[in-house]
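By convention, each integer encodes one residue's backbone shape. The lines below illustrate.
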Amino acid sequence: MAAPRARDHLLIFVVALAVALAVADSSVVVLALPDLYGTFDVSIVAVSWTITAYNLAIVVGALAVLPVERRVRGHVIAGTGLAVFAAASLVCGLAPSFNVLLAGRCVQGFGAAFALAGALPVLAGIRGNDEHAISVWGLAGTIGAALGPALGGVLTQLFSWRSIFLLQAPLAALALVAIFDKRVRAVEIPPRTERRWHALLANAGYLLLYGALVGALFLAVLLLVVVWGWTPIEGALVVSALPVGAIVVRRLVPYLTPRLAAAVGGVGLAGGLVGLAFLPATTAAWAAGALFACGLGLGLLGGVLAPAAVPPDEPSVRAATVSIAARHAGFVLALAIIAPVLAADLNTATLEATKASTKTLLEAPISLRTKVSLAFDMRNLVADTPRGEVPDPKVPFDKRGAATNANLAATRDGVLSAIRDTLTRAFRPSFLIAALFGAAAALAALCLPALRKGKRSVDAIAFAVAIVVLVPLLVVAEFGNGARAFGTHTYVEPCNAPADPFPQGKGLDGTAQRITLSALDGAACKLGTSREELLLSMEPKSGFGAKVHWTHDALDDAVRAGLKRAIDDADHRNTIPGFVATGLKFLADRAPIDWILGRVNIPFLED
């Protein structure tokens, strides 16, 4: 058979490019989520719908293809899908509001389902070979997934998230030229084939596999870009470790038995997601290593599931459509489970991060005046940040001269680290849910009958053994480097705090800080809370309002206890004579503090 002409190469390329765009859309857009998160001022659950809506629409669109695939030729299905996808991409790129963007994403996903299903007979018409058409169709999806994160990161950072959709529109429209090829229009509707139970099992495996990818893509990008504060390109480079792993390992699939490939793939994917759950530090090396392991698992499991879901000798629109629906249903199911869990965990972790950053401030070697103002600024910052979102503490520090003050800069970095580490730990349950999806996908692949025999290769088996050994070792190494305690914080027990709560302080400011911290310890001990929660509870909107029920009586008790604790600590430090301390405590017990407080407007007091 003669090699295809240059025109055929071009037609195959534009159709494969359209397939790659439709398959890779979620991995491309995921790098734009942080920008969307800020542009439209929405929550994490809401922004996740830009992916959920697209994938849900693909599932609905695939169901709409099934009743017509026996009546309408493939090029008509593909042409309709490409036109709708291109028009909807333009709407998404120009969307003035989040609601318009979501509507556009729904239409875009519906068009993508038709385009993906119809692309298979279009490629078969151009190639003149059904098996080659399936090969190109599958390869285009793999390449799209490989390039998706990098493309999304580059476009978002160099231009904006809108450029992703504005680029998709003309590229999808360009593929329409293939629809008018005579060979494509002459492709007959293939006879109906008998349903095979292993195809249903393979598609169930794909559903679970794509559910696991929510952890490796959606969660990983939010972690790197939103929580760690990396640029989209930096995030894309790290996330690209996943498709790199998938491409590298796919060469091994023919040289392994299907069950061995499924078992090793399960270890790689589930183990990589566990590795992401237990990161011991906010560094690229740990994240990239875990994502690479995920990619190895993805490549092996995909190599086992693909031939069973869309058999090479049956390039029917129905088989492709069912497989498309199953894969994207996995995205929808996993996002529906993971997004609310993540939002709830981040809500709790944000409060813990605020408490940890307050601890860092109270113990920092900066002046009392700066420390108090920053503590209240941070408290207000958290109060004004919607729950589940990440507060940015840089501005209050920078406006006080962190650029030129080494101690202030170190305190800022300590606060940033406290917030970043605490929120990173909050991703653990969500990553572990994704790992369960990955393990279930491997189980489905293991249950498939052996549709092919793996070629014997010592090198391939050695590589498989290395994966089985090294991925668990990655997790062990993470625990060895502090993953167990990462993101947790130890707080001073106020009732047992040392008499010198600020040993690094010198001069008048150091004395004032000792008195202030001792007073906070005494008040917190009296009210049964920590000094960080005591301070933060003075702003009810901060989320700590329930820690202390501030009434005039509670405030009176807190002030008296704080004064007496400060006096006792000063006595223990030999700052004041014992008889003076006794006299001062006598006065503190009998001073008209409640009357004084009643003359002052204190906004955090309850009625």
User: Anything to note?
Assistant: Residues 317-363 form the longest helix (47 residues). The radius of gyration is 30 Å. The mean pLDDT is 84. The chain has 24 helices and no strands.
